[in-house]
Amino acid sequence: MYANSINKVSKLYKYTTSEVPMSKSLVEMFHSETSDKNKKKIIEPMCQMSSDIRIVFATTALGMGIDVVACHSIIPYGSPRSILDLVQEIGRVGRDNANSVAILLHNSIHLRSFNKEVMTVFTTNICRRQVLMSNFLKDTELEELAKRGNKHTCCDNCAKNCSCGGL
Fold this sequence. Notes:
By secondary structure, the chain is mainly alpha-helical. It is built from nine helices and four strands; from the N terminus they run H-E-H-E-E-H-E-H-H-H-H-H-H. It has helices at 6-19, 36-46, 83-90, 108-111, 116-123, 128-133, 139-148, 151-154, 156-161, and strands at residues 27-30, 55-58, 73-74, 101-102. It catalyses: Couples ATP hydrolysis with the unwinding of duplex DNA by translocating in the 3'-5' direction.
């Protein structure tokens, strides 16, 4: 689960571990102020199938260059600072080509602080993947992306409009 500040990451971690005390061995917190020793303690198990870590509350400090094994869900919480931050966050998921999900979690207070590009992804009624990737791809590449995707597994907006009957 990504949040855009150390304060938010700390609050999410503290809330989770206080509400579910037995989760302390399964939950970690990662941000720029995490010691190198703890960063290594978190990253190494995440790169192995046998990891006991189930949830990591993190800022974008947990980002590029880390190949997390079997990560199938990401939750950006609140307002990512930019489209690039959002892409880096959700880019951690599904690297093994297994079905994966990114759940963009926000409330109306978060919407006030979104930049325009990020706001468009959260508020659009059309394909969220297309809107997100329009910041990085040419029109011809976007058309190819649209042809390849299964509508019922693309995004919540596509799933609403999918009539294939698939799951």
